[in-house]
Hints:
The protein has an 8-stranded mixed β-sheet, sandwiched between helices.
Amino acid sequence: xxxxxxxxxxxxxxxxxxxxxxxxxxxxxxxxxxxxxxxxxxxxxxxxxxxxxxxxxxxxxxxxxxxxxxxxxxxxxxxxxxxxxxxxxxxxxxxxxxxxxxxxxxxxxxxxxxxxxxxxxxxxxxxxxxxxxxxxxxxxxxxxxxxxxxxxxxxxxxxxxxxxxxxxxxxxxxxxxxxxxxxxxxxxxxxxxxxxxxxxxxxxxxxxxxxxxxxxxxxxxxxxxxxxxxxxxxxxxxxxxxxxxxxxxxxxxxxxxxxxxxxxxxxxxxxxxxxxxxxxxxx
Length: 283
């Protein structure tokens, strides 16, 4: 793994790469309120071992990337899509396979529409285009995040405890939550963060709606991966997304929630590797 800071018009992004730069590039985009650590190192290394040059990075307001005014970030989803392209530019990558989870999947859809010439394939995990009539998040999620306002974001242990509790509530029933692993990752996230409270800015980002209304126009090979027990973006969202994007393939994770459990890695990594084969798209 190699760390590299990338600067775009005064905004810094912390990036890390795995594998041989001569291999096809896979850019991993994490979801809201989560830094690059949640694309776990062994997950990234397995993709690299399969012949991919893997890049993960901290979005704005998380990890070691630039933070903005709390409560008034002033950037849009278009900016975040363009950030990804700038990172590819910094690595001299003309076209890449883009993999996004949750909010990262929203950014990935926008990239496919805004910069199709830079995209080889997209893989969309636990995400949606939020078309009308799709089911809302479960009430337990609303209640959990409502309590976030009570957290002392300067108290590292409280923030770590909150993060572990969050991943527990997002998990499905198929795999027991590895609390020790979650706590180690949450601790690593807190220790490398510029300011943990700033993760809350991700709830304030505008600008996705015009693009998500156009997902039927996506013209690059698409893979959708979704758990049947996702409590924040329910499974019908994944089904609808796969039906909307022309030619998209759907991989269903039975009993999985809004998460990347190690028990699913064989399926997820295998699907992404197959999807990103030269001339990719098939699953």
